[in-house]
Design a protein that fits this description.
By secondary structure, the protein is mainly α. The protein has one domain. Helices cover 60% and strands 0% of the residues.
């Protein structure tokens, strides 16, 4: 198992590397399925930890439309 924060971070990096969120999601989900990783739900504490982890590195204004 892993947290949604880890999933979010890895998805972000793979999407950036592969050029689209769809390609990144496909790569991440394929890897996680192949090694049996389940992603835990995202809650308020996960949101806080995500913001702490990426503080200053993401420009959320540029991420509009990315889901």
């Amino acid at each position: 198992m892993t947290s949604a924060v880890v999933y979010t971070e890895y998805l972000y990096h793979q999407s950036k590397k592969l050029g689209s969120v769809e390609e990144g999601k496909s790569a991440v989900e394929t890897l996680f399925r192949s090694i049996g990783i389940e992603v835990l739900g995202f809650d308020k504490e996960c949101a806080v930890e995500t913001v702490k982890a990426v503080g200053g590195r993401w420009d959320f204004k540029k991420m509009q439309g990315i889901t």
